[in-house]
Design goal:
116 residues; mainly beta; 7-stranded mixed beta sheet
């Protein structure tokens, strides 16, 4: 199994920045890809960024492209989401996900609130 622990959420004003972290433990050798999803109240969970654990290639959804950046530190088994120019519509619970040979795993979520 893989365990994921997120941190870094909080309250920030519009235009501000936050960095989320997701530390993976357990069978991390089985991970192919890690990503960030978010779920706003009354909305479905959406994928916003992903990174290959081996090549480092990345994906960013159009809604966050140019503002958010996903990165990884393989030595620390940690993936980050740097969020800049935050908007009120970025308010959501953010979840870390790992996808690999042993399936998909999720973190507990960290709440991000952007005030206008």
């Amino acid at each position: 199994q893989v365990q994921l622990v997120e941190s870094g959420g909080g309250l920030v004003q519009a235009g501000g920045s936050l960095r989320l972290s997701c530390a993976a433990s357990g069978r991390t050798f089985s991970i192919y890809r890690m990503g960030w999803f978010r779920q706003a109240p009354g909305e479905e969970r959406e994928s916003i960024a992903a990174i290959s654990w081996t090549s480092g290639s990345t994906y960013h959804a159009d809604s966050v492209k140019g503002r958010f950046t996903i990165s990884r530190d393989n030595a620390k088994n940690t993936v980050y989401l740097q969020m800049n120019s935050l908007k009120p519509e970025d308010t959501a619970v953010y979840y870390c996900n790992s996808h690999g040979a042993m399936g998909d795993y999720w973190g507990q979520g960290t709440r991000v609130t952007v005030s206008s």
